[in-house]
Amino acid sequence: MRRAAFAVAAGAMAVSLAACGSAKESGGGSGKSSGPKKGDSIKVGLLLPENQTARYEKFDRPLIEKKVKELTNGKGEVIYANAKQDATTQNQQVDSMVTNKVDVLIVDAVDAAAIKNSVQKAKDAGIPVVAYDRLAQGPIDAYTSFDNETVGKTQGEALLKALGSKAKSGKIVMMNGSSTDPNAAQFKKGAHEVLNGKVNVGKEYDTKEWKPENANQNMEGAISALGKKNIIGVYSANDGMAGGIITALKAAGISNIPVTGQDAELAGVQRIVAGEQYMSVYKPYAPEAAAAAEMAVDLAQGKSLDSVAKDKVDSPTTKQVPSVLVPVTALTKDNIKDTVIKDGVYTVADICTGQYKAACDKLGLK
Questions:
Q1: Residue 11 pLDDT more than 80?
Q2: Are 265 and 240 in contact (CB under 8 A)?
Q3: CB 120, CB 130: distance < 8 Å
Q4: What pLDDT does 37 receive?
Q5: Which of 142, 99, 84, 87 has the alpha carbon at shortest distance from 288?
Q6: Are the C-beta atoms of residues 245 and 236 closer than 8 Å to each other?
Q7: What is the pLDDT of residues 120-145, one digit of tens each?
Q8: What are the beta bridge partners of residue 326?
Q9: How much is the pTM?
Q10: Distance separating alpha carbons of residues 158 and 38, to the nearest angstrom
Q11: CA–CA gap between residue 213 and residue 234 (Å, rounded)
């Protein structure tokens, strides 16, 4: 997936992503299930955090379900629940999975800290836990995601490229993700490493629950505080928020300023085609989902993760968690064909609907 100038170098994947945890809470990270060995007839609990972001129902869930079936000769069962952005609901869902006696859990945490006690409950019940996409606290056994600081750096580098010589001619707004999501802090850190000293940050927000409507309100506040003539660009941590931001910009009569994003959501790709959004970060979900499924099946079957998880990551509570970190690519109008279309994420027909057809034609998307 090394198609763009901002693609991740493979050698960068081995860094630890979070602070080291305390010794007494380092019960996970062994890379091997402590329970009895299982055959192919296993039950995999899958807990995803929300359904506001298109990726979870469109990509993550079906990809994981398909891979578990492949790895278990069609005998493995995936039991699924979505927390709809409610941490309390997700904790209850973990309890239900424990009661249901699943053999392994894949958890994408709504709140990485709030899930900690539930992860411990699963561990106490002999159920290994794979942290998916977000680094959950507690004694997790494995983790897969993207190199999140590099995601932020990729966004920051793209924004700087778009601003060019005008980088310090006005102010940018930084719209970070939710403070309850550890990934958001890493995106922000990576972006600041690139942007600090090279741009003037006029306003910065941590956006509650990643919701586009909250980003929209924040952006309206930034426009009011800074003045619409002084804003030259917006760092948006994902595509959903970028949509809310761009709505606010349009309402204020602001156009032709770069806005970043992440996830390569269809609406985001279409905004890139139309010139409303400058870029997104393309995160190939298939290898992330495959890694989660493979680690989950191996853990349920009592196998080592050494052949799958080549990296180690520290969470605030668990050291040296066996991990798979997947590379990312900066997606702009120049490489849509070579990324999301080539990989089969979307077809030209998906992207180039009526209002986007003329813009697609200009880009050679036919």
A1: no
A2: yes
A3: no
A4: 63
A5: 142
A6: yes
A7: 999 999 999 999 999 999 999 999 99
A8: 146
A9: 0.77
A10: 47
A11: 16
